[in-house]
Design goal:
The complex is a heterodimer.
Chain A lengths: L2 H13 L18 E2 L12 E2 L2 H27 L6 E3 L5 E9 L13 E8 L4 E8 L5 E6 L1 H4 L4 E18 L2 E15 L6 E10 L28 H27 L6 H7 L4 H8 L7 H10 L7 E3 L2 E9 L14 E8 L5 E9 L12 E4 L5 H41 L5 H9 L2 H13 L4 H5 L4 H12 L18 H23 L1 H6 L1 H13 L8 H6 L30 E2 L2 E2 L17 H25 L1 H4 L32 H16 L15 H9 L1 H6 L14
Parallel strand pairs in A: 4-10
Antiparallel strand pairs in A: 1-2, 4-7, 5-6, 5-8, 8-9, 11-12, 12-13, 13-14, 14-15, 16-17
Chain B lengths: L2 E3 L5 H29 L8 E11 L16 E10 L9 E8 L10 E6 L8 H9 L10 H6 L1 H10 E2 L10 E2 L4 E2 L8 E9 L11 H5 L16 H13 L2 E11 L23 E11 L2 H6 L24 H8 L1 H14 L18
Antiparallel strand pairs in B: 2-3, 2-11, 3-4, 4-5, 4-6, 5-7, 7-9, 8-9, 9-10, 10-11
Helix pairs in contact in B: 1-8, 1-9
The chains are: A alpha+beta, B alpha+beta.
């Protein structure tokens, strides 16, 4: 048995046992501990409802909620809002107005196609609908009603002008239909409706608004739990309480020990306290197996940090992977070298590292910030340490570039543009299930991961400002147009194979969906146009790092022709051969989908829409699933791969042995790292196949189910595929 | 697709509507009588005015459905009172008015009519009139800002009605806006809207535009204005003195009643299509003598003073467009209260040419 066969056997033994993704099982009991909310998670100690008094109070609260909800349900059953009946046939009065967004930058941008309803209640409580309609594309509205119906004596003196948005879609005879949810209610005195037009004036609605304190397209959230455009479903909070509180308690215990008895705890003890991860399990079976060159190459191909392999321009037989960071603002608390890995593709289809170049300080003795070290397998223990540094850089790069930027932040910009603009177009049914909740988790990430006091600036060299710049730059390299997943370099490149398999399945699925709803999509094309406008107008500028600007054979317009720089892998990347839209003289990263507010036959807008939707769904589901769920595999062992490592006390610096814990992060960061990798990988809620919220188009579930075995052959359990980016 | 349910008023509902109309009209007029009429000795709005006496010679266009009151050759003594709504300052941007009385009496008359500048009115039924009154919010010559915000038609009408510094009352076109009955002598039922226009063919002065039209709520005099608080009244008196008379053309727009007609035709905030229903001459009004301040004040116009067949159209509720004239009909109580207060407490003083600009009080 060769090394690869052994690795595959051991991996197979450990992978399923140590899989971090969990599905909900029993649900919570009345007296179990729970998190207050997802936003209250914190590696320094989340807000938990614990202790007898708090738990009893919580029980009382939940009983009260049950009674209240029961009363509301009863009331709803006795006094239903009959949506399909409108009282009155005449249109001798109208409620008119003009609806726009409300922030400084967009208060003149109309809110089109918002669902409007005029309701009243009889003196004994029954609901009566008097009118319904939508805002026009220019944001104006005129809701006609029958004066006689409104002014019946049985109708109470207050009427309700309601603004509804599309919460989700439901499917009726295979067609997606929007399901409207109340967003805002304005009370109108009945006496104000005197016939003719009653104007509500210019209504400024706080609705999916862009933050104005950053040029990265992010949504403005005033209060995560009360005034955010979306909320988590209850099941989401229950799932995280159920699955993560045991881990939270371990971390809390460690933090207390570190504070009170630091001598009683060390890295091995911290590690052992947490559930075993993939590398720990494999090490237990065959010591040293996860530190081999073979395993290193396999993880670069198929692990959390699966990457593009560019050909080495100087030696076409070799491939390169780069993690270049040093231009971003950082501190000297941790090492932060630029890492270049040179790999060779073996005949068996696996990559193996042949050289690692470290550029930057890695020991306290280093004085030159640009010192370069080239290490090869001949360097023995220093080579092993260099691989560790490369793993750490790969882990951090994946967290930043692949996980947060490519899935979380990238998804958010599509989510904002979609929710701001898509309300009647069936494309919402295709996208909403995959775009929801990302803004909430990103808002939490801002606080606990990326801020000055967040985990990343404390556990790695990069500062909050450097991190923000990195996210913006990565976003500047992302675009949906002509994007395709990574091209496999060999049959062993299972990540790339499954990524393409999933892409092909999705591409067919979105094509079929669009074909089914083509008339409605064309009819509501204005929403797609406005979506595209928002997407482009708020996109970050296109970004190409200085090194690539020099190395690629770009033409005078900065474009890369198809026959140039063949060493550069074009898959899984922005298409550098096409020009991009300019807004106010700035070249934007994201391509425009359409330039027409009405659908024009003969253009390829529908196929572009198919590409865009496929891209979004791929990123929010598979893209996020891969980089997120494999964190516990690849950064679940502190000495194997922590996101940051220190200079160490020996003269070898970070090239010292793994056992030198002056290189590993300190105890607090170490246990918090375990908290993070567990939290991110372990708290699954929102799977495509589970369809917990009953909003996944059934056709997607059917298509995935039909390919279950093909995916399984590539080590993908379709039941683990998340439907959205919500952790 | 939601299903629409037709709503009809029950018999009890209809009775309740009429009671509500009666009650609100009565209560409103009672409040006006007590506050404006007796306490302040003021009309409900157009206090700042000047009246004149003269005659009306009927000479209707032959195509106007015949009515005995306007038979060709009939001559009636006549009074006309021009006014500016609400403010005691002619140089403000105001709605101007012209009331006609086909007699030379303070009250008694066979035919009274109240007309205003502009084709459409700021309110269209009693309910909207109550809103207008509630939302006046006048301060220093700025009023109705919230009314205009809530009721775009009201703002549109204000722009249509308001006149800034017209050259003369006699140069303005005044409409009665609210339709009245026009049941012709041959038994055909119909409706009429009246207007009074200058005898000369001149373009109407004072129509607002620019900033005035953008902010009709701001009725204040223009900074640096040299026109006095009484300039229009003085001009009218001077004109009468110099020319001996002031003439107007009295016109009517008629339409036949139809079964199942849309009530919108009674909406005073919507004008009738003049191509379809052109204004036609009824005769010429000639004013020959200006009345003094006291006589002008005493001259009162009543909707009770309308000939048979030319009266008001019955109203059924406060939302009925015809309810405005119903309320005007009930307003006699307030008018009598004001005239009674004149007798008991004396006439209000004449408007001085003082610096009390933009004012809704005389002094």
């Amino acid at each position: 048995m060769n090394a690869y066969e052994e690795i595959n056997r051991i991996y197979a033994d450990c992978h399923e046992d140590t899989k971090a993704i969990t599905h909900r099982t029993k649900g919570r009991t009345l007296f179990s501990k729970q998190f207050k909310s997802v936003h209250d998670l914190h590696h320094e100690g989340s807000k938990l409802v614990e202790g007898p008094v708090a738990i009893i109070a919580e029980v009382f609260y939940r009983v009260w909620v049950l009674i209240r909800d029961g009363y509301l349900k009863l009331k709803k059953a006795l006094l239903p809002r009959r949506d399909n009946l409108i009282y009155g046939t005449k249109s001798d009065g109208r409620v008119v107005g003009y609806l726009t967004f409300s922030r400084r930058d967009d208060h003149l941008i109309p809110l089109h196609h918002m669902r409007l309803e005029l309701w009243g209640r009889t003196k004994w409580g029954s609901w009566m609908k008097f009118s319904e309609g939508f805002t026009e594309p220019d944001g104006t509205f005129a809701l006609p009603f029958d004066m006689l119906a409104v002014h019946r004596y049985r109708v109470r003196s207050k009427l309700f002008f309601e603004l509804h948005h599309t919460g989700q879609y439901f499917f009726q005879n295979g067609k997606a239909k929007p399901q409207y949810e109340l967003y805002e209610r304005i009370v109108i005195k009945k006496s104000s409706l005197t016939g003719m037009d009653f104007s509500l004036g210019h209504l400024l609605l706080p609705y999916w608004e862009y933050r104005q304190d950053t040029h990265v397209p992010r949504v403005y959230i005033k209060d995560h739990d009360k005034e955010a455009p979306q909320r988590y479903k209850k099941g989401r909070v229950d799932a995280i309480s159920e699955q993560f509180i045991p881990i939270e308690l371990i971390t809390n215990k460690h933090l207390r020990l570190i504070r009170e008895h630091p001598d009683q705890i060390d890295i091995p003890k911290i590690q052992l306290a947490y559930p075993e991860n993939l590398t720990m399990c494999m090490e237990k079976l065959v010591p040293g197996i996860t530190r081999t060159d073979a395993w290193f190459g396999i993880r670069l191909m198929n692990g959390m940090y699966a990457s593009n392999f560019d050909r080495d321009p100087e030696n076409p037989d070799l491939y390169w992977v780069h993690y270049h960071w040093s231009t971003y603002e950082h501190t000297d608390d941790y090492i932060f070298p630029d890492v270049s890995i040179r790999l060779k593709l073996l005949d068996n289809g696996y990559m193996t590292p042949v050289e690692i170049t470290l550029r930057g300080k890695i020991s306290k003795a280093d004085t030159d910030p640009k010192v370069v070290r080239k290490l090869t397998p001949a360097d023995g223990p220093r080579w092993e340490a260099a691989k560790r540094i490369a793993r750490v850089s790969g882990g951090l790069a994946t967290e930043f570039d692949k996980h947060f930027s490519e899935t979380h932040a990238n998804t958010e910009q599509y989510a904002i543009a979609t929710y701001r603009n898509v309300r009647r177009n069936p494309i919402g049914a295709l996208l909403f299930p995959h775009l929801k909740e990302v803004i909430l988790i990103n808002h939490t990430a801002d606080k606990i991961l990326l801020s000055d006091t967040g985990y990343i600036p404390r556990s790695t060299a990069i500062t909050a400002r450097g991190a923000a710049q990195r996210v913006a730059d990565v976003l500047g390299t992302l675009d949906w147009k002509n994007w395709k997943p990574l091209t496999p370099v060999s049959d062993q490149h299972s990540y790339a194979r499954v990524a393409n398999l999933y892409w092909d399945m999705l591409y067919k699925y979105t094509g079929e969906f669009i074909a089914t709803h083509v008339d409605e999509i064309k009819e509501e094309w204005h929403e797609i146009f406005r979506f595209s406008q928002d997407l482009v107008n708020h996109s970050v500028p296109r970004f190409l790092c200085a090194w690539l600007c020099r190395a690629l054979e770009l033409d005078e317009n900065g474009l890369l022709a198809a026959d140039k720089s063949s060493w550069f892998d074009r898959s899984n990347r922005m298409d550098l051969s096409i020009s991009r839209p300019e807004v106010d003289g700035v070249e934007k990263a994201i391509s425009s989908l359409t330039e027409n507010s009405e659908f024009i036959e003969g253009k390829d807008d529908l196929s572009q829409l198919q590409q865009l939707c496929t891209y979004i769904i791929w990123q929010t589901t598979f893209g996020h699933y891969w980089s997120n769920s494999k964190q516990y595999d690849d950064i679940g062992e502190i000495r194997y791969n922590s996101l940051g490592i220190r200079f160490g006390d020996s003269e070898l610096g970070a090239l010292g042995p793994e056992e030198d814990d002056s290189i590993s992060p300190d105890l607090k960061i170490a246990t918090q790292m375990m908290w993070w990798s567990n939290m991110l990988s372990r708290t699954g809620y929102g799977f495509i196949m589970s369809d917990e919220d009953k909003d996944i188009p059934p056709h997607l579930i059917e298509k995935l189910k039909a390919q279950e075995e093909i995916f399984a052959a590539l080590d993908i359990n379709i039941y683990d595929l998340q439907s959205r980016t919500n952790i | 697709m939601a299903q629409h349910i037709a709503i009809s008023r029950s018999a009890a509902g209809k009775v309740a509507d009429r009671i509500a109309l009666w009650f609100i009209a009565r209560m409103f007029i009672l409040v006006i009588a007590l506050t404006m009429g007796i306490k302040q000795r003021q009309r409900m709005s157009h206090n700042n005015g000047i009246a004149a006496r003269g005659k009306f010679i009927a000479n209707p266009d032959p195509s106007v459905p015949r009515h005995a009151f306007f038979a060709t050759g009939k001559v009636y003594p006549c009074r006309v009172r021009h006014g500016s709504a609400t403010f005691y300052d002619d140089a403000m941007q105001c709605i101007r008015s012209c009331s006609i009385k086909m007699s030379d009496n303070d009250w008694d008359s066979p035919f009274d009519l109240e007309l205003n500048t502009g084709k459409i009115s700021l309110f269209w039924n009693v309910a909207s009139f109550v809103q207008l009154a509630k939302l006046r919010q006048q301060q220093w010559g700025v009023e109705y800002q919230n009314y205009y915000k809530e009721y775009p038609v009201g703002k549109e009408a204000a722009i249509d009605n308001l006149r800034r510094n017209p050259t003369s009352f006699s140069h303005l076109t005044n409409h009665n806006q609210t339709p009245l009955l026009w049941n012709s002598d041959d038994g055909v039922k119909g409706y009429a809207k009246y207007r009074i226009i200058p005898i000369e063919d001149i373009s109407e002065p004072g129509i607002i535009s620019g900033r005035d039209a953008l902010e009709p709520q701001n009725q204040r005099v223009i900074p640096g204005e040299t026109r006095t608080r009484n300039y229009l009244k003085e001009e009218y008196a001077d004109r009468m003195r110099e020319k001996g008379s002031v003439k107007y053309r009295f016109q009517v727009q008629t339409r036949a009643a139809e079964t199942g007609e849309d009530p919108i035709i009674f909406n005073s905030s919507k004008s009738w299509d003049e191509d379809q229903f052109p204004f036609k001459d009824l005769g010429v009004i000639e004013m020959q003598e200006v009345l003094n301040w006291d006589d002008s004040n005493m001259t009162t116009f009543s909707f009770q003073n309308l000939p048979k067949g030319l009266g008001i159209i019955p109203a059924t509720s406060i939302y009925d467009f015809n309810s405005l004239n119903y309320m005007r009909l009930k307003a006699d109580f307030a008018k009598r209260a004001r005239r009674w207060a004149y007798k008991v407490f004396g006439m209000p003083v004449e408007i001085p040419d003082s610096d009390n600009r933009n004012s809704s009080t005389i002094v």
